[in-house]
Amino acid sequence: MSGILLARRAGGFKTGIVLPNIGDAWLGGFYAGLMDPTQAGAVPANDANQGGKPYALIDLGASAENSSVQYKTTNDSAPAACSTVWDGLGATQAMISAGSAYPAAQYAAGVTVPSDGASQAYIPAMWELLALYWQFKPFTDSNYLTAETGSTFPGGSVTQGYDPVASPQRPAFTSSVPGQTNLTAWKTGGAQAFQISYYWTATEFSAANAWLLYFTTSSPGRLYRYGKFNSTRLRLFRRIEL
Question: How many other β-carbons are positioned within 10 Å of the β-carbon of residue 64?
Fold first, then answer.
């Protein structure tokens, strides 16, 4: 989606916002699509943030990645704001305020971004990072399909690929959908490509674990748990409300 974003009263979008094409350089990073937590059924009832407005998601790209960082220095509870499927910005801000026990958030706090009206750099929530897998899947391997269970948050069964905060909303994966991105820079080996690794989200799974997303050729696209004091890769985002 690109061009002038017209007002949609149901979604609350502003008029006069010009969006580039997916993957184009924009606001210190790369445009990665629309998110809309106001859509019916988008935000679960136990999410810490029941508010929010539609926003454009910005991938800060490979240059802002951290190749190995802890979510937390201990495997215990994160701030309540981390119980969110969509508000990585709020979760990151809460972890920054909580101090040095949150290395990934402290890393995000130290990343300089332009003064352009968009947000600070932040750790994406689980459905924000999933939105980038849908847009920028780097490889051709079949997607992981088995639902995840056992989480304290959001609880129940998490369907792989399902992203109701993305706009348009994303259904469950099939083995072949999404396929590899057609954007060369995000294909494996490209300048902006996700590495073959796990990536942190800001979302708490349980007291001891946080959600991460597999950008791997084994279990591609899998949302899964990881002990918070472990280290893995981190990709940072920005957003601008629409």
Answer: 20
Tokens of 33: 């699509």
Please state, in angstroms and rounded to a whole number, the distance separating the CA atoms of residues 219 and 100.
32
Q: Contact at 8 Å (CB) between 53 and 16?
A: no
Say if residue 5's pLDDT is above 60: no
Q: Which of 215, 46, 218, 41 minimizes the C-alpha distance to 130?
A: 215
Q: What would the pLDDT profile of 91-134 be if each residue is shown by its tens digit?
A: 999 999 999 999 999 999 999 999 999 999 999 999 999 999 99
Asked if 102 and 225 touch (Cβ cutoff 8 Å), the reply is no
Q: Residue 3 forms beta bridges with which residues? A: 19
Under 8 Å CB-to-CB from 111, ≥6 apart: which residues? 60, 64, 121, 236
Query: In the sheet where 231-234 sits, what is the strand order?
Result: 66-70, 231-234, 197-204, 209-215, 223-227
Burial 184-219 (b: 16+ CB within 10 A, else e): eebbbeeebbbebbbbbbbbbbbebbbbbbbbbeeb
Nearest to 122 by CA among 163, 81, 172: 81
Residue 162 burial by Cβ neighbours in a 10 Å radius (0-12, 13-18, 19+): middle
Distance, CA of 7 to CA of 236 (rounded, Å): 28
DSSP reduced 3-state for 47: coil
